[in-house]
Write a structure and sequence with these properties.
Elements: H1 6-23, E1 31-41, E2 49-50, E3 54-67, E4 91-102, E5 111-115, E6 144-148, E7 163-164, E8 177-184, E9 193-195, E10 212-217, E11 224-225, E12 231-232, E13 234-235, E14 244-245, E15 249-252, E16 260-269, H2 276-290, E17 308-314, H3 316-326, E18 341-345, E19 355-356, E20 380-381, E21 389-390, H4 394-399, E22 404-410, H5 411-416, H6 420-424, E23 438-443, H7 476-492, E24 509-510, H8 514-517, E25 535-539, E26 544-545, E27 550-552, E28 559-564, E29 568-569, H9 585-588, E30 592-595, E31 599-600, E32 603-604, E33 610-613, H10 618-624, H11 631-635, H12 638-654, H13 660-671
Parallel strand pairs: 5-6, 5-17, 17-18, 18-22, 19-27, 22-23
Antiparallel strand pairs: 1-3, 2-3, 3-4, 4-6, 4-7, 8-16, 9-15, 10-11, 10-16, 12-15, 13-14, 20-21, 24-29, 25-28, 26-27, 30-33, 31-32
Helix pairs in contact: 12-13
Length: 679
Amino acid sequence: MTTMSSASRYFYWIGLLTAVFLASGASVSARVTRFIIQKKESPAYQGRSFGKTGQYEIIQGRFTGEIDPADPLNAIINDIRLAPRNARGLVEYSATFSLAKPIDMTKASGVLLYTVANRGNGCPVKIPEANCQANVFAYTDGHVGVASGWQGDLRPRPEAQTIVVPAAKNPDGSSINGPVFVPIRNVPQNTQTVALADVIYRPATLDTSKGTLNKRASGGNQIIPVPSSDWAFADCNKISFPGTPDPGKICVKGGFEPAYSYELVFTAKDPLVLGIGYAATRDLNSFLKYEKTDDTGAPNPVATRISWAIAYGSSQSGNFLRSFLHLGFNQDESGRMVWEGANPHIAGRQLAINFRFADASGSSDLYEPGSEAVLWWGDYADEVRNRRKASLLDRCRETGTCPKIFETFGGSEFWQFRMSPDLVGIGARADIPLPPEVRRYFFPGVIHGGGRGGFNTSGPGVEPGCVIAENPNPQRPTMRALTAALVDWVVRGTLPPPSRYPRLDREELVLPTQADMGFPSIPRIPAPDGLINPFYDYDLGSNFNYNDLSGAIAKQPPVIRGVFPMLVPKVNADGNEDVTAVPSVLLQAPLGTYLSWSVLKGASCRQGGGYIPFPKTKKDRLTSGDPRVSLEERYGTHENYVAVVRAAAEKAVRQRFLLGEDADKLIAEAAASDVLAVE
């Protein structure tokens, strides 16, 4: 029996879907054509009942849809006119979905909470104590929760949200070719072969003279070409170099060197039309809000019960939301609004997906695009890059379909994910005013995604490869409260708390150096100088649309034309970010310094952040030479510490930055902690 590789299976399904495109026939309009339920768990969550809402059920399956490439709302999808079409001239796709809803829909709230899956990971709704992917919608006020596949360059895997989209072809049916860039980092010692597992594309030829492989010392700038005779598209694990030919693997003569990162470029063919993921998300949400049945008469399981829809996306998924709105997808093809609310969380860029041979799983590493596009909610003329005045909301303003927006992020977004241009533009000269439909909330001293929380004087341990302990400062309790506030704004018109974030006009944003930040000199702790992730100005070629992050990249890796300035929040004498913000209760009753950055042999330790406990006593402080006030001097007794926590929690509840139930939990945790406890 002949078996296919995962890549072969993937493109087999694309081919099969293309055949279905050409054979099917229904009326012309973009919409969900089939909504197929494949699995139903009812009741879900171990049969638990949730207050007046009662029990929930979870529905999983697939949906298919078709897109009119001639519609102006779809024309912005890169290469959509080069995608195969069915007999009606429409482009089709197929994606997964997962939906959680009250069994008794008469008890539903009328709110649909859509969670944008992150690299295929995600669940429809987070029920307390349920075994589900982390999700801010952690309550069940009768809301319907939904997630679906949108990222077309993921291979199918169990429980993942995925989508199958077609590949673009030249008008004559021939393949479209283009360069693909693959970074290879953190290769373990004695590695002979690296699998290109995260890359959906394969080289058009195994001839290495048609590609390039460079290496550079970690953290260095010198590029060292690897001769084409010294590497191969092959597996060298069983047979020594040049090994067994394999388009899905690469091996290097003598093995990979752990002290180096590698940069592979090869020519691929048949780019996937990944921008269809935006349209599929639009059309699924529109179907669930507005339609009663699909084309076959199969019922919409939440028909007539959804009045408002709110989207949440974190990190990559938050960038998806920003691009979704910027490209005009919050209006369906009937002119109706898709989401009344949106919360792009820990996201300051746009998603690198709607261009030829894009890698939607990229982050903000070297040569990875995402910050080239419009980055700001308010109107801003990007004079540094010679761009016209623009906003992420330009297209939805034209159609009256802009949602109410919460933008939420922490300190690591400044250090690792290039957040400051969102606030002050590329020139970093002045604050960009926020439009009235946007609220912005900054969480100081919080790492990417937030810490685990807790009131523990020793704190978490040191992550592998880092030299500073993990930062425990949490964001989840704040996000729970803000999610409730966003729902209230959308459903009831209740104005949310005013925005809280650092600004230039308050002198709260500075250059990322110890001197400008005012960071204290703490024994054995390196200064933050040089640890910010640079914001490079890339030359992506004349075929690239920088403002919309679309088109095609002409050369890989791109040429670096310069570096733009980046700013970070100022800190206080403790080294904690001390600006206009929404601090956690833990930061208001600090047990140490909560860093948004960390170090790894002089380079950024990615998203781990850092935690430096305060000295416990005055004697400890004097002995160590630590300039920060000790816990003993700061709080005196355990009871006083708990009182500080209580005051901070109660204040946060009054300001609507903390739910009452979470305040009670935090106060109880502080009371049970070892902070200044008498032994």
